[in-house]
Amino acid sequence: MLRIMSEGEVARALKCVLARVSTATKGRRPDVAALGSQARLVAVSKTKPKEMIIEAYSAGQRHFGENYIQELVDKGNDQQILAECPDIRWHMIGHVQSNKVKKVVEVPNLHCIETVDSIKLATTINNAVQKNLGDKKLKRLLKCRAEVCEAQCMETKDVELSMGMSNDFEHAILVGSTNVRVGSTIFGARNVKK
Fold first, then answer.
1. Which runs of consecutive H residues, i.e. helices, occur in 5-137?
2. Which of 131, 135, 152, 179 is the most buried (most CB within 10 A)?
3. Quick check: 179 and 160 in contact, CB under 8 A?
């Protein structure tokens, strides 16, 4: 059974998640803490109504993630969201086909496309890199980041590491994530897409 969140619940849940992000950040080992500042919270609003996004924005949240291109386009161009959330930052967190890039990059306030899986796509958007390692240990992702940085002559602090979701974001922050995606803990269970 789907539970509907009442007005104010999103703001309360967001405040709780932000406190947990802060606590996890403070608990980082010194070598991990040296890689960067507090992890960015991306509130994953896929399948959620604009009223919940506006409530989270009003409570201070600025980064929002969408998994579906059309939903990102619709929400990103929604006149009420544009008016009430002028500096919202959208993250495309789902797969983007190269023939859909133009549609995505035209979304107002698009901050980044988090998943880049081809050279063709990378040359078009050139914003973010994510490597999906499935159930492998998080330290493999940290090693991957270090190897990419070394190969590209970049500092690790200059490369974002996106890992961690509602069920494990605190641990991900502890081991070095700079970007966590949290949806159901803020907005409630995901609505089934019809």
1. 9-26, 30-33, 50-58, 69-76, 79-84, 101-105, 119-125
2. 179
3. yes
Strand residues in the chain grouped as ranges (E) = 40-44, 63-66, 89-92, 110-113, 179-182
- Which three-class secondary structure state does DSSP give residue 10? helix
Average per-residue pLDDT in the chain? 82
Whether the Cβ atoms of residue 89 and residue 81 lie closer than 8 Å to each other: no
Q: pLDDT digit string (tens) for 23-82?
A: 998 888 887 777 667 788 999 999 999 999 999 999 999 999 999 999 999 999 999 999
- Taking the alpha carbons at both ends of the chain, their separation in whole angstroms is 16
> Helices 50-58 and 9-26 meet at what angle, rounded to 10?
50
Give the mean pLDDT of 103-109: 88
Report, in angstroms and rounded to the nearest whole number, the Rg of the chain calculated over CA atoms. 17
Say if residues 21 and 169 touch (Cβ distance below 8 Å): yes
